[in-house]
DNA sequence: GGATGTCATGCGCTACTAGCATGGCTGCGT
DNA sequence: ACGCAGCCATGCTAGTAGCGCATGACATCC
């Protein structure tokens, strides 16, 4: 029972005439007549009584009509559903992101996205890069904002990596620190400084890469949150490295210096999607907003 | 969006593979591949991600799938509905019949019909022949059991008349009446009898036709119901004509005589349906039961 | 690294279906 | 009362859509 036959049948039933239905559907009368005949042959019964003036539904025709209506209505609903998805008038977007990205980059992109496509349901999960990638492959997230270092290159061929930005590291020092007036600084100059880091083991901190190059920071204070680190820095307890992405709204008692390019560990930030799978429209669109948000973090310094 | 495409799409989605779906649907892989491509072209989006091992639904595919399921399910429901109607596993039968037919003929036919097709909803309306025919044309009844005389020939070309029987008239006399032992009687012999009839005007009674032939019955008692008439007859108040159809379960104090064929007014009983319209399956089947029931009223005398 | 699975696609053929024309039928209007 | 106009069915023809048979590209598994 092809839908066109049902469409024709519905029109004929509604207009009460094969000829009228043919005109309405831009067919010839013969075509419609034959389509009705085909439908009747398929269901094995007469659906219409041919009267001298038009047609009338038989019992079976009356039984079929509401089903035909329902089928055709659902069909257009199906089309609408897919179209809405394409036009981002519906659907969802499940984003995963690592902690620092949730500080500003991802929220800004999400805000811009929601302003443009308010009908799309958003969700955001913070997590570590490996966990985020697991979510991706499990189908629990549509896109994950992840970073490459220090956990090693994540060029796993199972993911499409859309490069967003290279995250620069800033050195936070107290506003009255001798280095506070400088624009850039070299690691070597910091040999005597006390570092406030996320882990007592230098290898697991933002300086992990530099350790291999021979630089061993002195870590006296361990703090997990950026706000805590900055508080220690402001109090003159030491210096800290913070990624640009986390350096939003730095208080005035803190000065931020850029590291010399040669000393800077490379932390590449990507938006990852599952390789081989086509990106849902919401993801494609969201990537553009991510790009825009990322641009705001690469130019200012 | 033709239903075959949806069927193919559903199978592919369910089996996770175009090749598997092709096997399942008895198509070649190329055919299925092309049908999916056609569906995708029609909705304007990719519905499947082609993976090295089978396929996976895209966001749009996931959105379409439940609709496809619903459409196909409804489609088979439609087919079932029509089939049930044809097999008399559903539907309704609305019968109209004149008063005497409701006494026994129609109830017996209905009972037999219901025994054979319990799923069909039955309804029965009693009425006069013209009103019944109006119900038919108005579409409020499916079949009407009507009688031709005395209201004149009803060969209106708007109806298909299925002849059921010629209703014979019986003369009811008291068991101790002089005529009680006879098998047949002529009208001329009844000139002196007192008639119990439905109307004081002989023209409007069952003898209406005979009036034209010169027979004028003496009507002393008017009774509308057959039971009332028979009561009067049994009490020796007179004689009465009753149609065979109403002579069911006659009490023992009544004797029934047949009129001489030449004196008998012809009352032809038909099952009428609207001309030009195909008969619903229930009606066709019911006519057979009516024929059977009618046979029981023609043979016994 | 060959073998085997996946899906896409060019090619030829068939079969469906649309249009055109005609014919039969019925009811309307003159 | 009779022709006419409208309705639907159908024989015929042409275009095309869709199938199967190949083959090709690609990735995985043994």
- Sheet with the most strands, sense and barrel status of chain A: 5 strands, mixed
Q: Which quaternary structure do these chains form? A: homodimer
Spatial strand order of the main sheet of chain A: 4-3-5-13-6
Number of helices of chain A: 10
Strand percentage of chain A, roughly?
A: 15-25%
Within CATH, the superfamily of the largest domain in chain A carries the name Periplasmic binding protein-like II
Q: Alpha-carbon distance between the termini of chain A?
A: 66 Å
Question: Total domains of chain A, how many?
Answer: 3
Any overview of this molecule?
Two copies of one chain form a homodimer. Chain A has 301 residues and is α/β, with parallel strands linked by helices. Chain A folds into three domains: 84 residues, Arc Repressor Mutant, subunit A (Orthogonal Bundle), CATH 1.10.10; 108 residues, 3-Layer(aba) Sandwich (D-Maltodextrin-Binding Protein, domain 2), CATH 3.40.190.10; 95 residues, D-Maltodextrin-Binding Protein, domain 2 (3-Layer(aba) Sandwich), CATH 3.40.190.10. The first copy, chain A, contains ten helices and 13 strands. In chain A, the strands form four sheets. The first copy, chain A, has a five-stranded mixed sheet with strand order 4-3-5-13-6, with helices on both faces. The first copy, chain A, has a four-stranded mixed sheet with strand order 8-12-7-11, covered by helices on one side. In chain A, strands 1-2 form a two-stranded antiparallel sheet. In chain A, β1 and β2 form a beta hairpin. In chain A, α1 crosses α4 and α2 crosses α3. The mean pLDDT of chain A is 88. At the A-B interface, α4 of A face α4 of B. The structure holds a DNA duplex (30 and 30 nucleotides). Chains A, B: Belongs to the LysR transcriptional regulatory family. Chains A, B: This is LysR family transcriptional regulator. Chains A, B: GO terms for molecular function: DNA binding; DNA-binding transcription factor activity.
């Amino acid at each position: 029972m092809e839908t066109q036959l049902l469409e024709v049948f519905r029109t004929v039933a509604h207009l009460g005439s094969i000829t009228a239905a043919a005109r309405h559907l831009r067919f010839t009368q013969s075509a419609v007549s034959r389509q009705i005949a085909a439908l009747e042959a398929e269901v094995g019964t007469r659906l219409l009584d041919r009267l001298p003036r038009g047609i009338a539904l038989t019992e079976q025709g009356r039984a079929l009509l509401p089903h035909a209506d329902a089928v055709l209505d659902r069909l257009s609903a199906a089309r609408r559903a897919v179209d809405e998805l394409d036009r981002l008038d519906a659907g969802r977007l499940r984003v995963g992101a690592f902690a620092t990205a949730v500080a500003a980059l991802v929220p800004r992109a999400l805000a811009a996205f929601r302003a443009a496509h308010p009908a799309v349901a958003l969700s955001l999960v913070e997590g570590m890069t490996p966990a985020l990638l697991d979510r991706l492959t499990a189908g629990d997230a549509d896109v994950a904002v992840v970073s490459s270092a220090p956990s090693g290159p994540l060029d796993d061929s199972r993911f499409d990596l859309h490069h967003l930005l290279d995250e620069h590291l800033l050195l936070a020092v107290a506003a009255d620190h001798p280095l506070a007036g400088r624009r850039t600084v070299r690691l070597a100059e910091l040999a005597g400084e006390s570092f406030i880091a996320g882990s007592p083991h230098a290898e697991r901190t933002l300086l992990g890469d530099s350790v291999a190059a021979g630089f061993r920071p002195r870590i006296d204070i361990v703090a997990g949150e950026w706000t805590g680190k900055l508080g220690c820095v402001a109090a003159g307890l030491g210096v800290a490295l913070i990624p640009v992405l986390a350096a939003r709204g730095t208080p005035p008692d803190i000065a931020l210096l850029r590291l010399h390019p040669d000393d800077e560990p490379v932390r590449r930030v990507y938006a990852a999607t599952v390789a081989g799978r086509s990106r849902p429209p919401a993801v494609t669109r969201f990537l553009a907003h991510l790009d825009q948000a990322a641009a705001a973090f690469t130019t200012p310094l």
